Amino acid sequence: MRRFVWILLVIALSATVWAQAGTVRIVTEPWQPFMGPELPGGGFLPELVAAIFADSGRTVSIEFAPWARAMAMAASGDEYGLLGAFRTAEREKLFLYPDAFGVVKTRLYARADSGIPVPSLAGLEGRVVAVVRGAAHGREFDAATSFVRIEVEDHESLVRMLLLGRCDLIAGPADVIEYLLGTRFREAADGVRATGPVLEENEVYLAFSRAAPEAETLRILFNEGLARIKADGTFAELARRHGITW
Description:
This protein is α/β, with parallel strands linked by helices. The protein is 37% helix and 25% strand.
């Protein structure tokens, strides 16, 4: 009996140590200006997550991968969190969602000389639209079947597809597309324009895998930490330092 009680005590202590001092393993895609391996500190969101978990005694590790692969890694529980996730009904079956960081707008982009009118989603009929594989863009857009959808690995490939004329339009988060146009594709930026309606405004999350250890504990710690850094000014200071307007 004493041995059984001792085993239970060891298990409880191990769980407590993990909860207080474990590493939160997170996967995401390069998603400038919010995050990327070449950005200082990995970017705004990785630094924000580190600050959120700082008081819980946790370290945070970030791995970058193409978005579809990142989702698969997190959904399986190999990584504990998926950073930069939008919230969809399908993803809620796989992930627990804490409070959101902020909001981004998803938009359509076309070549400036294309003259493609897109007053609404109906204007996409018969067009070729490139998207990032596995990404969410808006309920109506993602469910639409009136246009040809081409999938690529990342947002840089998305912009390149448009500039090379291999699609009529691209769909993606405005902050990310415009960052790429202003940096890596600066010389061609004048040749691309936003068009049509905003597809959707999406809140951005660190979604925790339901298959990961202590997923609910991580969600609670995240919410407590996010509230703390918003109250003490850390959130605003990190946003100012990285040029984010949330």
